Amino acid sequence: MRQCVKDIGKYSFPCRMIDKWNVLNNEIVTAQNVHNFKEELHKWRQDTMSPTRTLYNTTR
User: Fold this and answer.
1) Per the structure, how many domains does the chain have?
2) What residues make up the domain containing 27?
3) Do the domain assignments include residue 2?
4) pTM check: above 0.85
5) Could you give the C-alpha distances from 59 to 7, 13, 15, 50, 53, in angstroms and in order?
6) Do 4 and 15 form a contact (C-beta atoms < 8 A)?
7) Distance (Å, rounded) from C-alpha 28 to C-alpha 21?
8) pLDDT along the chain (60 residues), means of 10
9) In this structure, is residue 35 part of a structural domain?
């Protein structure tokens, strides 16, 4: 659920990222440092954006 109401707020960085941040796994969000965060995020993106996962996704 978005918190921004006015157009200037809707397109700001924080408003655009709220939904994306909330989708991330807890282990990504609570990474010990930036390096671990980037590694976990990269793994998560590869898994969630792989063509086979998109092609055979039954939860749509």
Assistant:
1) 1
2) 7-55
3) no
4) no
5) 32, 28, 26, 15, 11
6) yes
7) 10
8) 64 76 91 96 86 53
9) yes
